Amino acid sequence: MMSGWRRLLEEESEHQWLSFTAFTIIVIIGAVLIDWSGDLSGVHEGSSLEIDGIVLDSAGDSILYQTEDGIKISHNEMENSAQYATCLEEYEDITLACLGTEGMLGYIGDGGPDCDTEWCQFSIGDGLTATQVSGNGLALLMIVQDGTSDSLAAMWFGDSNPQPIIADYEGIMHLDVVTANDEGGWYVGGSWQAPPNWLGSNPTSPPMFELVLAVTWDGIAAPSIEVIHMGNEGVIHGIFSTDEGYIATGTADTISIIDGKISSLGMSSYSSVGDQNGNVWLFGGIGSETVAIISDDEISVEKLPQPLEIIPTYAFCDDSGMISVHGSDSSDNPSAFSIDSNARTSFTSLRGILDLGFILVSILIISIMGWNIADAIRKGEVF
To answer: Taking 60 as the threshold, does the pLDDT of residue 53 lie above it?
Structure first.
């Protein structure tokens, strides 16, 4: 068989033009397949979160979602109405929930006889309604409603007589996400609302600008707030830990936070998620044809098999690396799609198979050509 291939590739072979034609056809077919394989692998309809509604948040075995009948929480297929709930958060061995109840946080899964399968509540102090919560050690940081603005309050988890301390900050903030960091504090994201008539803006609808805060708490005084990023008009909707530091994603820009240094990445998104490999995925609005993936300091843009048919509002990555993106379509109906975050680098994907095939065929052709050259040298032929 090898000798047959050798004869086809020999310059003086009578099959020279036949081999050249076959080679050209293979190149053309290969180019078409490579272009086809340029689409992101592992994309399909549906979600790993089997919920009939628009998913708002998820943590552990709990899912917060909206239906025509209002907002509900599902936990191990047990559904509860939660009309004013805003968040779910895994903390230690339990799942916390912002249920919209003044002075209380919900929790489930503590292993006890009462609250392992049923939602219970604990006090967070009088007059406070938490919309987001994050734990770092025994400390809890909460985003709490403060009239038409949001504020931050810190407390110790498990305190029998909780007295949360509210941070002192001037200005109107609308905060949406809080993530614990390795320094014992938190990064908080959302937006800062400009005052009325700010730089000639519409007084009835002042602009809001992307905002990222670094928050620390010594357990005694009020939480300390440092503004580390004030961006263009928009809102920060996600903050994720990576191998290098942290990534904050927003509707106007995306920034990296590495060793206290803030860098703009120049990417906007509607929704985002971190996968199990330390990458952050950014999804655009309806009609978007690509998805951006941030890996360390590198940004790659992958082409989707077809334009997005939904407005993404929430993205989730499970332990197996399956990303589920939820939102609503152009008719405001719930819709979702999934991406296998491991597929784009897998040899079992079309791109991986073609890459492997190209390598093997190239090695085969180069080997045969080298064989012919060596044989010609051995026979004393002149090139």
So the answer is: yes
- Stretch (H or E) spanning 120: strand 120-123
Question: In 147-223, which ranges are E strands?
Answer: 149-156, 165-166, 172-180, 186-193, 208-216
Predicted confidence at residue 351, as pLDDT, reads 54
pLDDT digits (tens, 9 = 90+) for 167-183: 988 889 999 999 999 99
Distance CA 287, CA 47 (A): 19
- Could you count the other beta carbons within 10 Å of the beta carbon of residue 67? 13
Q: What is the CA radius of gyration of the chain?
A: 28
Averaged pLDDT, 241-248: 94
Residue 34 has pLDDT above 70, yes or no: no
Query: Per residue in 173-188, is it b (16+ CB within 10 Å) or e — as a string?
Result: bebbbbbbbeeebbbb
pTM attached to this predicted model: 0.80
CB within 8 Å of 375: residues ≥ 6 apart: 6
DSSP string spanning 253-309?
A: -EEEEETTEEEE-----SEEEE-TTS-EEEE-STT--EEEEEETTEEEEEE-SS---
Residue 39 DSSP one-character state: B
DSSP 362: H
187 vs 72: CA distance, rounded Å: 28
- C-alpha 368, offset from chain centre: 47
In which element (H, E) is residue 54 found?
strand 54-59
Is residue 98 within 8 A of residue 87, CB to CB? The reply is: yes
The answer for residues whose C-beta is within 8 angstroms of residue 151's C-beta and 6 or more apart is: 143, 144, 145, 166, 167, 169, 173
Q: Are 115 and 108 in contact (CB under 8 A)?
A: yes
Q: Which residue has the higher pLDDT, 311 or 372?
A: 311
* Lookup: tokens for 283: 């999804």
Q: How many CB atoms lie within 10 A of CB 345?
A: 11
User: What's the rounded Cα separation, in Å, for the pair 108 and 96?
Assistant: 7
Per domain, the residue ranges of the chain are 2-37+350-378, 44-68+271-336
The amino acid that residue 110 corresponds to is D
Residues 6+ apart with CB under 8 A from 137: 184
**If we measure between CA atoms, which residue out of 75, 61, 63, 128 comes closest to residue 100?**
128
